[in-house]
Amino acid sequence: MADSEIFMTEMYDEGVVTEIIRPAAIVPEESARAVLVELALRDVQYGGLWLSDPSRWALYDSPWLAPGQPGNSQLVGTIQVAYGTPTRYEITIYRATVTRRGTETGWTVTKLCDEALGFGKLDLATCPRATLATPPKPFHF
Questions:
Q1: Looking at the DSSP assignment, which residues form a beta bridge with residue 77?
Q2: Strands in the chain per DSSP E
């Protein structure tokens, strides 16, 4: 299934839970490296449960049959990330979604984020957070 199809399924599927992580969680450099290594070692296409790219980490309920062949594997949830922000070697987590399959099997947004952050010895509750700037004053003529 293409990423756009997965996204549309997530958006219109009952039982889907999406949360904006506010303020965004900032994964420090050392932890970010550990998380990325562990996600790569646990790639769903090679016997693991995670599929990661520069904008999203996705957790599946079972490994894929082969690279590019998900078979009966179902998406449990996704974590939207931005690499290199706020500094070059940090990762920002700003949104997470748990699919119906994830909800049915007991996953929550916090549990999903904690699973990934655990590879860097962090959890969502203790992860450093972005500083929220005061919004600008409204423009008047």
A1: 59, 98
A2: 17-27, 50-53, 56-60, 75-83, 91-98
